[in-house]
Structures are given as C-alpha cells and as structure tokens.
Amino acid sequence: MLLTFDDGYIDHYINVFPVLMENSISGLFSVSGKVLAESKPLNVNKIHYVLAEAGEHRKQELLSKVYKLLDYYRGTEFDYPSNEELYAKLAVANRFDDKDIIFIKRILQAELPERARDLITDDLFREYIPIPESTFSRELYMNFDQMKLMKKSGMHFAVHGYEHYWLEKLNDQEMQKDITMSLDVLEGIIDRERWTMVYPYGSYSREVLSYIADNGCNLGFTTAVRFADIQADAPLLLPRLDTNDFPPKSDNYLKIT
Ligand SMILES: [Zn+2]
After folding, report:
1. Does residue 116 have a pLDDT over 80?
2. Per the record, GO CC terms (predicted)?
3. 134 CA → ligand 1 middle, Å
C-alpha cells in the first residue's frame, strides 16, 4: 500500500507527516512548483476556498456573481459563449459535486481562456477571502525547509506541474515548459534521473507521457479509481483510490474492484 497526498498542503506536514512517522510508513507528496517558487496560491485552491466560504447557503449568490463577471469580461479581450450555453455544456453533476458547483469549477479551472479564468478567480477570491495572497499561500502550503525535513525522514516527493494545469489541454511547448519549470523548482528534493509524476486533475496525454519518460520520470499516478496492479499496470499510469470513496463520505470503495 502507498498513501499519496496531493498539492503540498501544510496540513500534510503538520498532521500527516507525524502520523506516518509514528507508524513507520512512507508517503508520496506532490507539490506544484508555483506555490514554492512564487508563494502564490494555485487557482484550484482559490476556487476551493471561495466555494467553501460561500457554502451551500450562499451558492446562488456566488453563481450570480460568476454570471456577472462572465458578462463583464465577455467581449473585452476574450470571446466565449453566453452564460446559458456555458451552463448547458458544463453543469453536469458528478459523484462529488452538484451541477452548480461543477459549473463554477469547470468555468474557472479549464473552460475559459487562461487570463479570463485568472481575472474572474482573483475577483472572487478578493471578495470572499480578504487577505493578501502571499499570507494565504504561506498558511496553506508547506515550504522547502519542511519538505527537506520530510525527505530526510524518508518521505517521497513527486512532480505535480508548475501551474497545476490540465496537461492534456496544453500545446506541446506549454506542456514541456510547465513540466520543466516544476522539475527546476524541485531541485534537491527529487532525483531528476528517476522521478515520480502525479498528474494534476489526473490529466495526461500521449505527448505528456512520452515527454516525461524521455526526461527521467519512471512512475506516474493518475486519478483513475481502482486498485493498482503492479504487474499489469503501465508504471506511468498507476490508478489510485480516493479518500472521498471511503467513510465517512461514502461507501463507494465497496464497489471498486
Ligand atoms: Zn492537485
């Protein structure tokens, strides 16, 4: 069994690391380059915090703010479909989130042009989380010193992109740049000849696989939910079970073969 922890939260240093040490087990931790190099929170985390702050009771208010921002930026330097079209295309509930939440996540994590996503996410973040981004980032993620101590104590670190992009959505040049930058940031933490990849959002493509294989990656973890078979699975495409599939959140694990 291998436990993996994504995104480099300080919670993993404060709470997970001591429990692993007490039980003499090693964990695999993946951290995106940007949070370390720039002390800037990832968009995906800003969106999580905005959603958490709005909560169920202010969700409709958040949704109408998102619509207003979409209207505000549409037709400036960007062109994207109407709110109704976007909602019809993207609002499909999954096993974790209802369709409004999925719509907000997809709009801001992948659908819009990158700069539009950044602008709208920043506007929402400023409104819902009124503290400086650098403070937020320092409180949310682990830092280099903590990572070095964890590494010395037998924990493993994996590459998790620089910007936490959906790698399959980038063109070759952008994808290679994002991966190279993330490798550079983790200098001294990972072995460049033999490193592990945890694909952000589980997103990869044939191009991603061939690029990382050519650049020293020998193990990769997706977000496919099933038991890994070390004999049969491709080393760069190992599946994982998700904590959300276990109690108290759900009993899905019973259905996983
Ligand atoms: Zn992640």
Report:
1. yes
2. extracellular region
3. 19
Look up residue 174 and give its two tokens: 């952008």
Work out the average pLDDT over 64-87: 94
**Ligand 1 centroid from CA 85, angstroms:** 28
Neighbours of ion ligand 1 (CB under 5 A): 6-7, 200
Task: Please tell me the distance between residue 76's alpha carbon and the centre of ligand 1 in angstroms.
Answer: 31
pLDDT for the residue 77: 87
pLDDT of residue 249: 82
Report the separation in Å between the CA atom of 160 and the middle of ligand 1, taken as the mean of its atom positions.
7
Distance 232 CA to ligand 1 centre (A): 25
Q: What pLDDT, in 10s, does the model give residues 135-144?
A: 999 999 999 9
Q: How far is the CA of 200 from the centre of ligand 1 (A)?
A: 5
Distance CA 43, CA 49 (A): 10
The Cα–Cα gap between 226 and 71 comes to 41
Instruction: Name the CATH superfamily housing domain 3-40+141-255.
Output: Glycoside hydrolase/deacetylase (3.20.20.370)
CA of 122 to the centre of ligand 1 (A): 19
Q: What does the pLDDT look like over 180-203, one tens digit per residue?
A: 999 999 999 999 999 999 999 999
Q: Domain residues of the chain, as ranges?
A: 3-40+141-255, 43-134
